[in-house]
Protein 1
Amino acid sequence: MTAYFSSFARLWAVSFGLGLLAWPIIVFPCKPLRDRGYAISKVLGILSVGYGAWLASSLRVMPFGLPSILTFLAVLAIGSSVTFLLRRNEVLALVKPRGRSIALTEVVFIVILAVILLLVGSYPDVTPASEGMMDLGILNSVSRTHYFPAKDVWMSGENMNYYYFGHVLVAAVARLCQMSPVAFYNPAKALWFALFWLAIFSLGFSITRRVSYGFLAVFMVGIAGNFDGLLQLLALCNPLSLDWFGSSRIIPGTINEFPFFSLLWGDLHAYVLSFPLFAASLALIYCLNDRLTPRRGHLQSADTPYGLIGLMALCGGALIVTNAWDFISMSLLLFVVVLSALPLARAGLLRHVMVIARTTLPVLGGAVLLFLPFILSVSQNRPIGFVKERTDSADFAVVFGVLLVPIVAESLVAIAFMRRGHAGAGNGLSWVVLAFLVVCLYVAVGRPTWTLVLLVIPVVVLGYLGVGRLVYGQERGELGDWLSRGRFFAVLVVSGALIVFSCEMFYVEDVYSGDLARMNTVFKFYLHVWVLWGLAGACAVWVLRRHLLNRLSRVARRAVWGLVIFCLGSGAVYPLLAPISRTKGFSQAYTLDAERAFRGKYPSDAAAAKWLRENVRDQLVVAEATASSYDWPGRISAFTGNCAVIGWWGHEVGWRNGFQGIHHRAFDIGRLFRSSDPKLAAEIIARYGIQLIYYGEVEREVYGEAGLEKFESAFETIYASDGVKVFNTRRRKMGVGSGG
């Protein structure tokens, strides 16, 4: 367990330090949060330092590495110190009353990090069964990069045409932790999920003002599973044989992951790396929502919240280059928050237009401008298609029922007590109209299904509730604060519904077609819906428990509360049983070693990869075996960060949205290894600028040994052990010409 305690100490120390440095800068924009932004300061600290190091490298000011990272760490420290010194009294006035909440937040982070790090060490292996090799390859390539854009680890001579900024942040933290990319792979997963859960805790705590419901938010967003866990439990003779993977494949032709499944799956993929950034963006939008909530019929202030907008632009831009799908959902949330505030304020049309423009345009425009070097280096043009086969209502209920039942229950109970002529009911008309327009558009595009009904219920009900001006808020007479939190609850539900409606009408076209045409669209956007509705579900339980259920009869109260508890219990089945199934009963020894499976299957290749990492400092072009996807060829480039001529060519087709000569590379690599013709080999080596030729166990399995002799006779062997040979094409043997 030495590796566990060492990794935990480094992760905590670095995240604590970065958060502490960023906090004085964000404390004012994050005033509406109970912890004054302390939870998301860790994410924003990592983002600030990583962004600075990336930008300096992209502009050729400083190479990416520990010196540049420390430079921007110092810049952050200076900015934080100046802010604190100039506004010391204001900072202390904000922080002191929240001292216990802030201390609790740090304790929660420590516990979450410790638990997740323990879980991650139960399945640490990077294998070709998932995207782990790809993720590790990108991380290694980024870590070897001096000046961005990063090189494509599986297509030499080309820039990475995929989201890799999240891996830049991981690489930056790894440098600060003084750990290699391979050693940091599993600790990084634990840290990123811990940051995600902490931000969700902060949001749940801030909306409900109750610590227990902050934990409930973490459960519903980050831990709970869908109804499939319960359905499997009822059908299984042995509860420990749960099909943990099958719970993410409910709707045919799509992927239906939820955060806890993503944690068990164990990849360090782009969508996983965006989790804490998305949660931090959600927290900032909550702060904007509070600022835009009218007090006494007027918006709080006429001035533009530049600090908050700047943070939102930075997070939004980071989402574009980490996982662009998240930016779309964040933009939708931003517009819904801004538009929902306008009917509540007594202002003219021009005033409304100004509020929209000064809030949304700087955020969205700033997000693009801040990351323009990355955006210009990547080509990801994807057309939009119309959905033909829509989601079955039963499948939809299995995926989201655990989250939706508390929301619908709260809405129905609340509307039952709503008085006629309620002050907020008129404002709710805008939401009813919005729901009606969405329904009309849905019906116009194609046939409706029961999924439509399941979605319209919460949207319409929340509309009648006056966009969050809930009954209990009216009675308590605290309309400003209650309206802010209640309206954000409505925004979460409505935004999630709009996203699902969109997935039922449109999809982003990619290399997948036929039954898999909308696989990625549903996959990426449903994760956002899970976060939004999970947070809203926790808030709905709080509203029911604290403000509504006591008005019902005993029988009705028990029925509603029993239904909610049943759903929460159903969501707990998966996280209780899936880890046991995933780890085969925690049968293997605990380790954070990402190379364990690689070393077990190909020990000589693993040893050679380690030697290359330690002795080859530059990022070279290597010839190794290639495969379509999800196989061991491509392992050397993945585990070292050197660039293969072609690695997993199936992934390259997806990244580049077409073949574009990819298959020619795979064909040439086959000829290079199989042919005994030195002249042909020399031509291929020159064509792709190959600097290293790797001949190991997998190459023998795929290509045989017929072509090995020509390498041995022509090039210097820089590594030879246990059947593995690595040739340096820049060092030719004496007396050997270009033709061999």
Protein 2
Amino acid sequence: LTKHSRVNTGGKPYSCSICNKSFKKRESLNKHMRIHNVEKQFSCAMCSKSFSKNYSLTEHIRIHTGEKPFSCTICNKSFTCKTYLTVHIRTHTGQKPFSCTTCNQSFAQRSVLTAHKRIHSGEKPYSCTICNKRFLTKSTLNVHSRVHSGEKPYSCIICNKTFSNKQPLTRHMRTHTGEKPYSCSVCNKAFSQKEHLTRHNNITHA
């Protein structure tokens, strides 16, 4: 029966009651729970979010203050913490130090490699508590959850239209700025959306 249960749960019958991540063994779940049980004595006075380490709180506060003390020497883009800067610099150097042992695809971030590996394993450790749909990453689960909650935390600063995630907001902003980042390689006509370029190529140059 235990073996049968693991088949029906994707082989991971032990789920975290806090973040819904699933595990094959109870011991792994118990170890994971320590992440949630760590005492978080450093609290943000602006949003009440708490942290176990003072430096984590310091980095978090920069989200509220807008402070970005770490700057890229190549393009001057700034970041709230050194880790984000390190990852960003790889966009200039092309460095991708994290490789998949299955398909040899390389990535600039370890977290992206971890998510990528789940494509091969079929693992979807994050599940929606409302509809039980499962996801590869916690971020995609968070976006999905807004379908149920109706939350739209991303707002257009020009017309105040709101969106459930950042990507459609970015596309929407182009209606105000007139930006057209997608150009046809045949006739150089530019488009604000990638799907508009694809449709143009299929109709005009196919």
Protein 3
Amino acid sequence: MAAAQRELIEETGLRAELSLCGMLIVDAGETGILLFILLGEDPTGKLISSLEGLPEWVPYDQVARLPVVEDLPVIIAKIHGMKAGDYPFIGKSYYDAENKLRVVFD
């Protein structure tokens, strides 16, 4: 969590209480990716720009309209449906034989 806290501060100027929501295995061909998904609550500080860009708050219902990686709206919907005390999820993101994105959660 310490590394995630540092990245949050560096890239946004914000501090927040972070908790693990889940992990997602992204099947990216020969080299896979394991994505740790965190939720930040009660942020403090002032948003700043960084080399990563200018962060901004986006209402939940507008995320699907943004130019984001294809599985992000699915992941955010999963987080949005979680309740306090839920165990972190484990999922997998991959493209099937018809090249259609599949995101499955255990």
